[in-house]
Structures are given as structure tokens and as C-alpha cells.
Design a protein that fits this description.
By secondary structure, the protein is an all-alpha fold. Helix content is about 70%, strand content about 0%. It has 13 helices and no strands. Keywords: Membrane, Transmembrane, Transmembrane helix. This is DMT family transporter.
Length: about 280
């Protein structure tokens, strides 16, 4: 695994901890948790606050991605079953791969990228649902919100690669602005929050890791690595999330888990390794 992919994997591992950590903050208003967490995450780069100044397009893309993702996802959780919304939001790695040729001139898709992403997404959906998913038309607005979250994160990631490179520390500015917007929504639409001491600690961990350091790692990965490979690797997020829930005693693996794990690992391998090492000549791009 090359260095850029290590950055991507580090971000994915930190995001995978969100389900485990968030279980301890589920009684708190979600935009309060996101707002405080993002502002805490921005403190990781506050010593380089001068590097928060970037071209307007970069700043707009950063806030669009970070705030937009949480906005759509939290609304999806309110309007649709959490499991269904989670599965649909995990379309973002597949979208990253499929949208690469449209948003990144000169990028071509090989059969290994497409197949790897499809297999990985199927595995991700299987491990989240256990093979049981029942969509309801009454929850359609929530499903659209979840898909919106996936579209936002995929396009934000690809635009990060397309826009002029900027300092990773600029992500702190994106987090700070996104945190202020989330807190604004909290005060406007949610009841007052009264976290316990333990919940404050969990929010701090969420802020410094998945809402802070993870975004820094992801920004570096997107500027340096092939987005088709990074997108395929993203399917490992629900796998790692599930394993963390199991390790913490909050979930258990069932019979479908082994199949799902094989699909995720196999899909990631197919999508991230060079096509000539995996496919016959007639399948290569």
C-alpha cells in the first residue's frame, strides 16, 4: 500500500469509529454534536491559521463537502430508517469511481474499477443489513437525503483533486465554518443540549479524530492518489465500523458477515491493484 493510500485508510479507519462512539451521544441533538465536533477538529490546525486562507473555490468546496455531507445525512436519519439511510449513504465510494471520468479530465475507468466498486458496495450493503433491507416509499425523502450525502461526499472528494492544491491545514478552516453552520442549525431547529462529562469526552474524541484528523488525511489522499483506487478502498468503511461495534460488544457477526467481508476485501483488491495484474487483456481499459 503506497503512502497516499495509507492516508486514505487512516481516514477510513477513523470514520469507522463513528458508529461505536456515537452510540454514547445518541441522546444529544445531532447538529450540536456535529457543530462542536467540527470546531474542535479545526483546532488541530489553528497554529497554522494563516493557511486557512485559500482561493474561494477551494473554500466553497470544503464547506460544501463537510457541512453538506452532515446536513444530508442527519436529515436522512430523521426521515428514513437509520439502517436504510446508512446503506444508501455508502454509495459514495461507488460514485467516486463512476464520476471520475466526468469530473477529472483524462481519467478512464477500467473494468476492474467498476467491478471492484460494485462488488465492494454489495458487500458493504450486506454487512450493514445482514441481507435484510426493506425500502418503503413513505421514507423516500430520507432515501433521497442519504443519496444526497453520498453525492456530496463523492463530488467534494473529486473536486479536491481537480482544484488547485492547497495546504492540508486549510481543512481546519472548512471544519470551523462547517461547525458554525451546524451549530446555527442546532440553535434554530433543535432542543438545548445538556451533555454529561462522558459525552463531552466522546464529542472531543469525535472532533479530534473522525471530524478533524480524518479530513486532513483524506484531503492529502485525494490530492496525491488515484481517486478510482481510493474510492474502491472506501468500501472498507462499513466493514471496519462493524468490526469495531463487535469488539465493543454493541453488535455481533452473523452468517452473512463472512461473505460480506470477502466481497469487500475482494472488491477493494480488484479496484485498487493495477488492471494488468488482475484481468486478462480484453478486460483492461
Amino acid at each position: 500500500m503506497n503512502k497516499p493510500m495509507l492516508y486514505a485508510f487512516a481516514a477510513i479507519a477513523m470514520w469507522a469509529s463513528v458508529a461505536t462512539l456515537s452510540a454514547l451521544t445518541h441522546s444529544l441533538p445531532p447538529f450540536f454534536v456535529a457543530g462542536v465536533g467540527l470546531i474542535l477538529g479545526s483546532l488541530l490546525t489553528v497554529r497554522r491559521v494563516k493557511e486557512w486562507k485559500v482561493p474561494p473555490k477551494n473554500f466553497a468546496n470544503g464547506v460544501y463537502g463537510i457541512f453538506g455531507f452532515y446536513f444530508f445525512l442527519f436529515n436522512a436519519y430523521q426521515l428514513a430508517p437509520v439502517m436504510d439511510a446508512t446503506v444508501l449513504s455508502y454509495v459514495w465510494p461507488l460514485l467516486m469511481v463512476l464520476l471520475s471520468p466526468l469530473l477529472l479530465p483524462g481519467t478512464r475507468l477500467g473494468a476492474n474499477h467498476i467491478l471492484g466498486s460494485l462488488i465492494g458496495f454489495a458487500g458493504a450493503a450486506l454487512i450493514v443489513t445482514g441481507g435484510k433491507l426493506s425500502l418503503s416509499m413513505s421514507a423516500l425523502p430520507g432515501y433521497l437525503m442519504a443519496l444526497g450525502a453520498a453525492v456530496v461526499w463523492a463530488t467534494y472528494s473529486l473536486f479536491t483533486r481537480r482544484l488547485p492544491a492547497s495546504s492540508d491545514n486549510a481543512v481546519g478552516g472548512y471544519c470551523f465554518a462547517s461547525g458554525l453552520l451546524a451549530l446555527g442549525l442546532h440553535f434554530a431547529t433543535e432542543p438545548a443540549a445538556h451533555p454529561s462529562a462522558m459525552q463531552w469526552l466522546i464529542i472531543a474524541v469525535l472532533g479530534l479524530l473522525p471530524m478533524g484528523a480524518a479530513f486532513l488525511c483524506w484531503n492529502r489522499a485525494m490530492q496525491l492518489d488515484d481517486p478510482r483506487q481510493t474510492g474502491a478502498l472506501g468500501n472498507a468503511t462499513p466493514l471496519l465500523s462493524t468490526l469495531m461495534l463487535v469488539a465493543s460488544g454493541q453488535a455481533a457477526l452473523d452468517g452473512s458477515a463472512a461473505i460480506a467481508i470477502a466481497m469487500i476485501v475482494g472488491g477493494a483488491a480488484l479496484g485498487t491493484l493495477p488492471a494488468e495484474r488482475l484481468l486478462p487483456g480484453w478486460l483492461r481499459a
